[in-house]
């Protein structure tokens, strides 16, 4: 039977355990230039020291106007790539593998000077700017930008790529019937943009590097999609080469999802991850209130998900993984300098 501290292998990615730090925006860029700072280095390296197997660096965007805020990370130039390399090297030095979430916020970009773009000119809510609908040629340019950012991430030394297709950001906006009302080919086939991004990403990655995709498995919104449609979305993306899905939910409805509470109890998204895993026979990461170690361990042991991600739990406690191993009585290598603080061998 699998457990939380057992190694895991996906193509060329070898993890020492099943614990993932999910992408979490730090909004901590100093000069609005998208370049990671010492904050980012310390934040990610601390979770590596704390025993986490896979660190997924926060939403890192393909163009300046594609960021949620002016203080979010980017990967549209080489200075940003060098800064990401600093994070990757530190995490590697301290035993964690690293992925980065490549993204575009679309209509959810809130930068001061930014006129957001989107598949269609529909605002997120009454407090948001109305986005400009992309021309067909501009959509193709964005696919190219995703590819360039992925290529930079690979050059920075990451071990995997995660494409952000969740939480109401650009790729999600294309595949949601709520936000894509286009008349061109990208409106005829709601997965076309996402599939083109994945194909472009794949072409910029080594063959043995896993391609992850984060997807909202239900929208909690009237007129939005649910789990059955999400399975079909994932099926289309899987055919394009996604090796593992990271299953979350919400983000498109103004009233719920990223702005509300879809019954956020322990493991609330695990049934969604399990359904996608079973329907498509694909590895999945489960996330969402999995910070109780015995619960998280049970999700892995029962085969409901392959990996579990702990977000807010690891914001609060960078040593979450070490403490989870201690409380579960499972083996883990503790950095000698921290050993006195744990009842671990
Ligand atoms: C401060 C913060 C920033 C986040 N930023 C991102 C992000 O960049 N990309 C993303 O896909 N999800 C983001 N999320 C969602 C988390 O990755 C995760 O799915 C969510 O917090 C639920 O997991 P948890 O209950 O373990 O915290 C963010 C969450 C928080 C709390």
Give an account of the 3D structure:
This protein is α/β, with parallel strands linked by helices. Helix content is 34%, strand content 16%. It has eleven helices and 13 strands. The strands form three sheets. An eight-stranded parallel beta barrel has the order 3-4-6-9-10-11-12-13, surrounded by seven helices. A two-stranded antiparallel sheet has the order 1-2. It has a two-stranded parallel sheet with strand order 7-8. Helix 1 links the parallel strand 3 and strand 4. Helix 1 runs parallel beside helix 2 and helix 7 packs across helix 8. The mean pLDDT is 95. The site of flavin mononucleotide has 20 residues, from strand 4 and helix 10.
| Class inferred from helices and paired strands | alpha/beta
**What distance lies between the first and last C-alpha atoms, to the nearest angstrom?**
22 Å
How many DSSP-defined strands?
A: 13
The portion of residues forming beta strands comes to: 15-25%
The largest sheet has its strands arranged as 3-4-6-9-10-11-12-13
| Structure ligands | flavin mononucleotide
Poorly predicted residue ranges = none
Mean pLDDT across residues? 95
Tally the helices.
11
Radius of gyration: 19 Å
Largest sheet: 8 strands, parallel, barrel
Cα shape: globular
What level of helicity do the residues show?
Answer: 25-40%
What is the H/E string?
EEEHEEHEEEHEHHHEHEHEHEHH
Short description:
The protein has 345 residues and is of the alpha/beta class.
């Amino acid at each position: 039977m699998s457990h939380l501290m057992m190694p895991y292998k996906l193509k060329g990615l070898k993890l020492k355990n099943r614990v993932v730090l999910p992408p979490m925006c730090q909004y901590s860029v100093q000069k609005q230039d998208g370049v990671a700072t010492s904050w980012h280095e310390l934040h990610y390296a601390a979770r590596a020291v704390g025993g986490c197997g896979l660190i997924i660096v926060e939403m890192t965007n393909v163009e300046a106007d594609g960021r949620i805020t002016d203080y979010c990370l980017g990967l549209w130039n080489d200075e940003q790539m060098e800064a990401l390399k600093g994070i990757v090297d530190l995490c590697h030095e301290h035993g964690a593998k690293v992925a980065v979430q490549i993204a575009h916020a679309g209509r959810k970009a809130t930068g001061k000077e930014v006129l957001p773009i989107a598949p269609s000119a529909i605002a997120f809510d009454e407090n948001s700017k109305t986005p400009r609908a992309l021309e067909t040629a501009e959509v193709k340019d964005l696919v190219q930008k995703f590819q360039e950012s992925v290529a930079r991430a690979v050059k920075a030394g990451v071990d995997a790529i995660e494409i952000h297709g969740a939480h109401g950001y650009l790729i999600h906006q294309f595949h949601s019937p709520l936000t894509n009302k286009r008349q061109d080919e990208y409106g005829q086939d709601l997965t076309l943009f996402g599939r083109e991004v994945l194909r472009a990403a794949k072409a910029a990655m080594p063959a043995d590097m896993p391609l992850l995709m984060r997807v909202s498995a239900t929208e909690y919104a009237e007129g939005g999609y649910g789990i059955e449609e999400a399975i079909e979305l994932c099926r289309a993306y899987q055919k394009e080469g996604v090796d593992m899905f990271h299953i979350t939910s919400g983000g498109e409805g103004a009233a719920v999802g990223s702005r509300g509470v879809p019954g956020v109890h322990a493991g609330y998204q695990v049934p969604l991850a399990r359904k996608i895993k079973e329907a498509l026979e694909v590895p999945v990461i489960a996330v969402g209130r999995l910070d109780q170690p015995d619960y998280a361990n049970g999700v892995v042991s029962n085969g409901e998900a392959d990996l579990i991600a702990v977000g807010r739990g690891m914001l609060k406690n960078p040593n979450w993984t070490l403490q989870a191993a201690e409380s579960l009585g499972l083996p883990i290598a503790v950095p000698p300098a921290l050993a006195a603080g744990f009842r671990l061998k």
